[in-house]
Description:
Layout: H1 2-24, E1 42-44, E2 46-47, H2 62-65, E3 73-76, E4 87-93, E5 97-105, E6 128-134, E7 142-147, E8 153-159, E9 164-166, E10 174-180, E11 183-191, E12 205-213, E13 218-221, E14 238-241, E15 252-266, E16 273-286, E17 291-297, H3 325-328, E18 351-352, E19 370-380, E20 383-392, E21 402-412, E22 416-426, E23 434-445, E24 449-459, E25 468-477, E26 481-490, E27 500-501, E28 506-517, E29 525-539, E30 545-558, E31 563-575, E32 579-582, E33 585-587, E34 590-602, E35 609-620, E36 623-634, E37 640-653, E38 656-670, E39 675-684, E40 689-701, E41 704-715, E42 722-731, E43 734-735
Parallel strand pairs: 1-14, 2-4
Antiparallel strand pairs: 3-13, 4-5, 5-11, 6-7, 6-12, 7-8, 8-9, 10-11, 12-13, 12-14, 15-16, 15-42, 15-43, 16-17, 17-19, 18-27, 19-20, 20-21, 21-22, 22-23, 23-24, 24-25, 25-26, 26-28, 28-29, 29-30, 30-31, 31-34, 32-33, 34-35, 35-36, 36-37, 37-38, 38-39, 39-40, 40-41, 41-42
Amino acid sequence: xPWFTARVLRFSLPLxxxxxxxxxxxxxSLVGQxxxxxxxxxxxAIPTAERIEVDGELNEGIWQNALPxxxxxxxxxxxxxxATERTExxxxxxxxxxxxxxxxxxxxxxxxxxxxxxxxxxxxETDVFGLILDTFRDKRNGFAFLTNPKGARREFQAIDDGRDxxxxxxxxxxxxxxxxxxGWAVEIAIPFKTLRFSETGTPVWGVNFLRKVxxxxxxxxxxxxPLRNQLQHVSYAGELRGLxxxxxxxxxxxxxxxxxxxxxxxxNQQGSATxxxxxxxxxxxxxxxxxxxxxxxxxxxxxxxxxxxQINLTRFPLFFPEKREFFxxxxxxFQFGEVPKVSGPPRDPELMLFFSRRIGLSDDGxxxxxxxxxxxxxxxxNYGLGLLNIQTKEMGETPAHNFTVARLxxxxxxxxxIGAIFINRYSNFSPNEHRAxxxxxxxxxxxxxxxxxxxxxxxxPGVTRNNLxxxxxxxxxxxxxxxxASYLDVQENFKADVGYVRRTxxxxxxxxxxxxxxxxxxRIFRDIIVFKGVLEYTTDQHNKPVTKLFRPIFxxxxxxxAVFEVTARKNFExxxxxxxxxxxxxxxxxxxxxxxxxxxxxxxxxRMVSGDLRFSNGNFYHGKKTSLxxxxxxxxxxKFSAAIRYERNAIDLPGTSFSSNLLGIRxxxxxxxxxxxxxxxQYSSEKKRVSSNIRLNFIHRPMSDFFIxxxxxxxxxxxxxxxxxxxxxxxxxxxx
Length: 736
């Protein structure tokens, strides 16, 4: 395989040359560019013996003694300008908690925007106050806590200075917020045992505070952050000093759960119900300030929301994201392979060497029971460590499997890392043992330049050749320019059974470039992509073209958050074998050139009524295709919201035509920040099925829940089959 080795070396060697050159630069210059200075903003936390009640009133005397963090600076809409509304933040602490109090002054308090009580509320639709804590002051990782004027909670982990964000991380913390005639106030208590930090010496933490005034679509930070960066970029944080003698405690959390299920599969309204009772336990133990051990036994995910259905008009498998809490926590540490590009909207990956949905779920999304498992994650010095072991149960003809994943990352320079990963799937009753190996490097220079490269190998019985994959990518993003280029090579036998590979036996080259223009005195337009081009060129392993795509883009962002975009797609597809689009629709072998025009956009999402539109029309292989995607949201108040999404694709091919329709309805009602009722109903014309998922969630204490979940799948064909189930799940966190 000399071609593969040569390509990887031609890219990898320059990466390491650049890296070494970077390390040898002085602290004041990098290839003629000044190095960003450490922010000089600092805030002092003062100790208190006074009992603080988290009620959003900040009426304890200690708040008056603490010096406030003020002088917030805009990132949006006018980077570097002072925030238009004043914010004062104070920090105090006692033996158990870190307390943060904020006065969010507002010149028009009657216009404060808030539409949500839900946990993990949508931060783009409401006024927000938030903070991030870099407890090891490594300028890479942090814990973020956000709230809105009604005290809703949202938290996440920032990883590798914003390269990855774990929005599904949950920690124990307390918050109350109240609206006053001067604006609104926030009171937050974060137990030290929720965090991870070094207990030696007098710690200096990184800290930053966020304030968002939604009616102005204004985002401001206490420690300034450049345009197109966000709170998770912890390298811009200021300093939190004054914390003395703080301890994490035992760092032991035990979370038992009990489940009761009633299910029934009926045909023509006839069938008998079955009941099932079960239980299990989850455990979390902080071995060291940087290392955490998680354990799970008889794991259950019955409370997880169902997947949102998709229409597939491609030759390749669909990508459904992971939603299960156990696999989402610290998921960024195990990330390897396709690294999301910084510029542009997120999109499905081409390759993931490890994809946790392969554990405990079949290819059809059916649940494979998990007997138990363990996970060790965290950091030791400059190393990030992740060890995962999961044992599944036997189900029908599917044998029990053991999954092992080992991940090691070494931090180098200020914000770069290199690493390796090992993946193993094994069964005593199945000959298809699977192993995967890989090494990768992620580098960041000059603020805006990101480089990524990896090489991976699959090992399965009987396969010794053509089982490699590799990628090289460069991304530059600043206030004006987007640039992204990558090369991905996946050989024929690279079957990542514990990962996700969109297609094998291909070489994909991607190039994106764009220019942003920001009018300085325009009250309507905030940012305009004057031109952006996307070019993709895919060949087989013999460099024969199989797919080409060119996509020019024009996009406008309005000051109120609305977006309008016009784009075109020019496609080339070579079919070496017939493409079965539907059971009775086959596109024959041949070369196809086709193109389409797309119009898309969304209105201001902070309004009571908002909407999204995506419309495309053009050629499709040797026929025509028209696609329409409509979405609308109605929020009469902060407790209730209703959203509807409709997608239709109409295909006309020689001798046949068909259409497919998807309809999804979401209803959410928040009785309080602890009690929620959610319903998600979907209809698919292809599957001729209506599916319903209704969940009642009561948070009876922090990270302790009671769920009632009703699931139903109803065929709308003549069979009338109905599959339904009712689940009760109770969890109780014991925190030591």
